[in-house]
Specification:
Elements (H helix, E strand, L loop, with lengths): L9 H12 L3 H11 L8 H7 L4 H5 L3 H14 L4 H12 L9 H7 L4
Helix pairs in contact: 5-6
């Protein structure tokens, strides 16, 4: 296989190539396939490690956040560490806000 990339991404590309050529690659793919859907919380320890927090700290987050970061991990596990961490931090920032009532919307835009 031959591909071109910008030299500033050499470390990231080397990390990805090392991941795909490692002995653990087949095992990781099997785990991803096995726990991809309903059981993605299986990856919570790995996610916590990448986010540099304890598993307990991550488990204290709302369940929807836990699921979001685990699903994001499953979707990006093959990337370099920086990209995975960026995606996980982005998923951690997901905040579900209740929908505003019409009267609240009118006040927000100054129609009161």
């Amino acid at each position: 296989m031959l591909f071109n990339y910008d030299g500033i991404y050499k470390e990231s590309v080397d990390e990805i190539i090392a991941k795909f050529t490692s002995d653990n690659y087949a095992e990781q793919r099997r785990e991803i396939a096995e726990h991809k859907c309903d059981d993605c919380l299986y990856f919570l320890p790995a996610v916590a490690k990448l986010l540099r927090m304890t598993e307990g700290t991550l488990r204290r987050r709302p369940l929807d956040i836990q699921l979001a970061v685990c699903k994001r991990y499953v979707d990006n596990w093959y990337c370099d560490t920086y990209t995975i961490q960026h995606e996980l931090k982005d998923a951690m920032m997901l905040i579900t806000k209740p929908e505003m009532k019409d009267s609240e919307k009118e006040k927000a835009v100054g129609k009161d």
